[in-house]
Amino acid sequence: MSEIVVPADRVADRLDEVRIVDTRDAWEFEGIGHVPGAVSVPFDSFRADEHAAEDGAGGESGGSGAEESGDGQGMLPGADAFADLMSEAGIENDDRIVAYDDTHGVFAARFLVTAELYGHDPERLHLLDGDFSAWRLDHETTSEVAEFERSTYEVDPPAETPLVGIDAVASATDDPDTVVVDTREAWEFEEGHIPGAVRLDWRELVDDETRGLKPRAEIESILDERGIAPDKRIVLYCNTARRISHTYTVLRHLGYPDLAFYEGSLTEWEADGRELETGA
């Protein structure tokens, strides 16, 4: 399973080889059903502040959600909390993980990014192409909850991660070899964005009918139009670092080699009094 974003058919054929993580709310996992063998790890459980972002597909609330510790961790839950969460789910450090949600993959992508930042091998982290609504059209679901023994998951953050701080982002705005990408909706971008940023709503890369990614050629065309090229350093931000998780995962899937993840995002940028640009 070499791709970062994997088709449902391939996952269905390998359910006994991977750990499936369902990032929907617990009531959805229990009441609606889930992918066989999945474990429930709701979005709020790996978020530092569950009130920081709205859980709808449309957007995130700007403002006061992110941590103001100055450590660049943004909305990450903390190493000990994440280790305990993974241990409780029975996930081992060397497990191959496939995550999904029912919101085109944006919450599942956030889980994968969090796992990568805490040291899980990124080559063993995968996003289900499509979401639960797409899966259930062609594949089996269940209401039976699989039982897993508690593991001893150890967090070991790598020496280098894609995380960048606010000063690095400010410097990137003047770098001709870097593209700063705002993954929010058009109206949010127009109200205020980091100067020089290019807008790419994360949903532009998703097919509303299949609920998975658009065809690769179509995605590459969209990225090319915005100047988001593989030979550039790409710095991603949104409001509270949820939506950039999906775009980051897609760009990794496409083989972009130099990606930066601004975890503080616009929440931190505004709180620090940095300049905003308005308009389309």
From TrEMBL:
Residues 52-76 are annotated as: Disordered. The keyword Transferase applies. InterPro entries: Rhodanese-like_dom, Rhodanese-like_dom_sf, Thiosulfate_sulfurtransferase, Thiosulphate_STrfase_CS. Residues 56-75 have a biased composition (Gly residues). Keywords: Repeat, Transferase. Residues 14-144, 174-278 form the Rhodanese domain. The keyword Repeat applies. GO terms for molecular function: thiosulfate-cyanide sulfurtransferase activity. It holds the Pfam family Rhodanese. This is Sulfurtransferase. It comes from Halosimplex rubrum.
